Amino acid sequence: MSAEILLVLPFLLLLALIAIAPLFFQNWWSRRYSTVSLVLGGMVIAYYLFVLQQTENVLHTAQEYFSFIVLIGSLFVVSGGINITTKDLTNPQENVLFLLFGAIIANLIGTTGASMLLIRPWIRMNKIRIAPYHIVFFIFIISNVGGVLTPIGDPPLFIGYLKGIPFFWVISKTFPMWVVGVGILLTVFYFLDKRNYHFVSISIRKQIEKTEKWKIQGLNNILFLFIILSAVFITSPPFLREAVIITATVASYLTTKKSIHHANHFSFHPIQEVAVIFAGIFATMMPALELLSRKAAALDHISTSFFFWNTGILSSILDNAPTYLSFFTVAVGNAQINNEPVSILLMNDTFTEHIIAISVAAVFFGANTYIGNGPNFMVKSIAEHYHVPVPSFFSYITHYTLPVMLPMLVVIWVLFFL
After folding, report:
1. Which distant-in-sequence residues (6+ apart) come within 8 Å of 147 by Cβ?
2. How far apart are CA 78 and CA 116, in angstroms?
């Protein structure tokens, strides 16, 4: 077995444990997941530092992880200071409108921001009849597919923006895919939710309708959300962006009333779990991403379908931002002749098709597993904190990804990338 394959084994083992451990030895995993994640990650980092002596690679990955967790954590804390009081029972039409609203604002405050802001009210407004599919479709639509229209929407698209993709170019090219993808998912959700709603007795519906109310508390945190999202565009000097975000986060937490945190059942456990799990993922996926880049760069005459499916499949199990960057680099390398800037390359129709395919696939396929995109795992963790039933890693894939997401992705591929 070659050394490069051996280096990928810790990543594969970590993925396997994330999928299997909660099913077969949940108590052990809940106590030891942090140790396992950090040990596996530490093994890879130690090999890179002391055997390969690739300190720069390790530092670059550490910086990416730090930026990732600072942004994810800040949006978690600030959104936890906003309490949206909802009615206790919503009908399928209202739920569809709520998900559509989330899909829209995901492009303004990011899929992470929208997920953290809306998951608690989503749970409350469906608490009488909440089922696993409520959480899954929230992840599908708000945490992933909805955010494909702007560089703010999802981290892969922001990387594209930093690499030279014009800000409004994204929505001009991905809007048809957004309409089809969100439309299909909302339609499937509506029929599932309509069936579920019929099981709630009419007497309970009428009783709740008399007492329904909507109220928002903690609106001062909207200002901190704006500061955080504005800081995302700071590119220099190093760590200024993170310093601004951390400052805004601390100010938000200290100025939020304890009653709001109490009403939201706010705790740091979900973000702690995400921070530890993704520390292991970021560390162990270094050799996997390097192997991917080497294999892909050696290919010639790459089709749009290749970019769509390979970017997508790997975005389902790797963090979709570095996966996007890997295939973006391959696309640029295949299109460049004399080191032209990306803005010039976009005049090439083939290159444009490749970038659209990479962008849509990275965002859409990120919904396929809990680890495909940062917000997915956080939504799952918050739902579990509220004692909401959520599918296991495998059940998520077999009961929802394969029968719902996969057909939608095939439709997107046939309509736009075949």
Report:
1. 103, 106, 107, 110, 111, 114, 153, 154, 157, 363
2. 9
Strands (E), 197-288: 215-217
Can you tell me which residue has the tokens 């075949």? 418
Structural domain count, the chain: 1
Q: What is the pLDDT of residue 201?
A: 61
**What is the arithmetic mean of pLDDT over 103-125?**
88
CA–CA distance, 157 with 311 (Å, rounded to integer):
13
pLDDT tens string 163-214: 788 888 999 999 999 999 999 999 999 999 998 888 776 655 555 555 556 6
Task: Scan for tokens 């080191």, then name that residue.
Answer: 339
Q: Are 90 and 125 in contact (CB under 8 A)?
A: yes
318, burial (CB in 10 Å: exposed 0-12, middle 13-18, buried 19+): buried
Can you give the residue range of the structural domain that contains 226?
Answer: 3-417
pLDDT in tens, 144-153: 999 999 888 8
Residue among 125, 146, 143 nearest 193 (CA): 125
